[in-house]
What we know:
The structure holds two protein chains of two kinds. By secondary structure, chain A is an alpha+beta fold. Chain A has a single domain, classed as Alpha-Beta Complex (paralog of FGE (formylglycine-generating enzyme)), CATH 3.90.1580. In chain A, about 20% of the residues lie in helices and about 20% in strands. Chain A contains five helices and 16 strands. A four-stranded mixed β-sheet of chain A has the order 14-13-12-15, with no helix packed on it. In chain A, strands 1-4-16 form a three-stranded antiparallel β-sheet, covered by helices on one side. A three-stranded antiparallel β-sheet of chain A has the order 5-6-7. Chain A is globular, with a radius of gyration of 21 Å. The termini of chain A are far apart. Chain B has three domains: about 150 residues; about 140 residues, Four Helix Bundle (Hemerythrin (Met), subunit A) (Up-down Bundle); about 170 residues, Four Helix Bundle (Hemerythrin (Met), subunit A) (Up-down Bundle). Chain B is about 75% helix and about 0% strand. Chain B has 19 helices and no strands. Chain B starts with a helix and ends with a helix. At the A-B interface, helix 1 and strand 14 of A face helix 12 and helix 17 of B.
Amino acid sequence: MKKKVIILLTIFLALSLSFCGKQPTYKHQSIKYIDTGVNPDTWVLIPKGRFYAGQFLKETDINYDYKIMLTDVTNQMFADYLNKALSEGKIKVKNGKVLGYYKGEKYYGFRHELKIPEGDNYPYFHLDEPGVRIRYENGKFVVDKGFENHPATVVTWFGANAYCQSIGGDLPTEMEWEKAARGNTKYSYPWGDDIDKEYANYNFSQKEIREKVFGVDFQITTPVGFFNGKTYNGFETKKSVSPYGLYDMGGNVWQWVKDRYPKMSDRFMKGGSFRNYDIYLRIWFRNSAQPQYGGIDVGFRCVKRPEGVEINFDEE
Amino acid sequence: MNFLKERINYLFTSTKGLVLVAISMISLVTAIWGTLSGPMVEWGVKDITVRLLGMKLLPIQREGRIIMLYHTIALAVVAIEVYFMTSILPMKKRQKVSINGTITVGYLTAMIFGLWFAYFGHNFVFHGLFLVGQALVFYAGLQLAAALWPWKEEYKVKDNAYAHTKKGYDLERIAFFTMTIATLGSASFGAVVGSYWGNGHQTFLAENLIRMAHKTPLQLAIIGHLHIMLTLVAVAITLIVGRWFDFKGIFHKIAMPLMISGTIVITLGVWMVVPFELIAHTIIYVGSVLVMLAALMLVIFAWDKLIREGIAESGKKGFWAKIKALLRDPIKFGPFWQMVFMNFTVSGVGIFMAVKLDEFFRVWPFREERITLTGHWHVLSGLIATIILMYYADIVGLKGKVRKWFGWILIIGSDIAFASATVFSLKRLSVKMYNDEPITAKTMVLMDIGLGAVLVILAILLLWKLFDLFKNKGVWRKEYESPELEVNKTTPEVEKEV
């Protein structure tokens, strides 16, 4: 009996220990550069009018034309922005974070709500997050080789918001994002109702993308515009764009949207990521996190609205 | 013809047969629908199932499908608990027959047509039949409540070892009655809201609402409904297992008032969630403590009983002899171990989340918090299922090595799976996203191994019962001839009269 108990305890201990251990130190990696032929510095016009919003296809109107980026903001675009902002004194680097200004928000004192007063110490970007593809070297932000045209990740909502405003734009609202993703269709995914490995970078395609396309064994984004019908090292893709031709509206990285609601601090993300099952890529699905969060599977794109169209959540 | 008649009579009129049918139905649904998610999708099994059965799975309808699936399985579990109750609790024969008949037709109708509606094209006639099935289950619950009415002379406790009021009314029966009434009320809490909300079939999963500061009354009610129903299923199985072990004495006398008051407090707390959301949580915590203390009394009683019986059998003394006595029968040790284990994988996780919500969980993305939430209540459902299976293994008379193998595989397999699920869901506490794949892979494999082992032994048990049905003098015949569960009832002499 004693022997059996000792054997069982040993197995239990061994199993428990197998879960422990120090986290490996993160080292920046290089990969081969893949040119998708898609220019991320391209804007697409979304005409005003009605569209079907959400899971239950609620007819919704957006009464102004707006432009949205063809792809997510890339690492190179974001690094260029950081370098410019640094040289202008708009951001600073401190304790592995890039910090910058935010105008602040009304505080309601509700449960779990964060106080967000005006200040210039809001995290824009987490340089210390394992999996980050931009590093800070000799006073400059540098992108890891091969990741230049991959979506910028580990950017917080504050950082994404600041980037978009720096180019005269803004983060899209959830409705602007959904309209850009769905057009006038009733699709579940930006390209239709089917999903498989060749449509997007998500949970089921991730293994093949790592092995066939990049020959690596770590979690990886795909360059923006990757799913364009081309074949990369034997990995076939379908041109899985939204009805307006937008790339990466499902999978690859979550995309921050502008919306915020009274009494809650979380900001929303849309589109699902390379870490997720297909259900999270459905157009209406929302993820959320606090605005200072920056994950390796979270990116963004921007919109530009016509003059006179103001989106102000403070008034709600 | 007689061949078929006898077997149908066994399966649909005896308690043991009815439980077998319900467990088989749940197993069948689990086996088929289990191929639609997780690694089965990656392995291509989902596509085969979908093609073979002609399922229609539109992404837009996923939440509705899942809600239907949860309901059909839950209704069958409720039916099993009702079968147990009508057998172990004294009541009139006609009441028992009517309750069992109604709930059987009810859950089968709801299950068959609910799944047909959800997964095979939206034929609204089937949705109607699903509602008919649910209504029948509810009606069976009303009958059960009437049959359990505890304030009757004939249901007074005669043996002072069982908890009772000063006037002799059976506190355990009151606990069963309270749980039944609470379940009926809580089912209505979901049904009324569901009928309103279901108008247009705009379904949602409660776990997708967790961070919304403002929830509509309907959303709050649905969140309350699903929590209280699972809690009451757990309360019911605790009471049932208590009767299986002839729970009595001082611990019974402490436990039953705790269980009654706990059930009432939790239920009222949940019902108050719509108008008084903030205070409702505190009330629910108080009720949970009472119910968990009642369960603790049962665990102490049962383990003490197992040790005493084992020691008496072996004649040995000392610490190891006691441990051996406790562990000698996994089928009887298991239910209470699972109740203890629940504290690490369900209650503990819940309390930890509540305490550290702002420090950890709200710092993570919503999706990660959602995984922890859904994980811990799936584990609770799984633990309840293993306890039911252990009782069933005892009912069908598993003996000797088969009993030990079945029991230990069930305990170890499920606990490995549930512990791994808990580690998986809390992994962000110890590992950053970029480095989490090794822990994800390990926990996934352990979950698959654990659940796989449980499903294999369950399949073997059911196949044995299936083949046994073809034998003329199989075990089924003994069960048919002695259809009721052998327990010491709190009011045994009343049973003789009715």
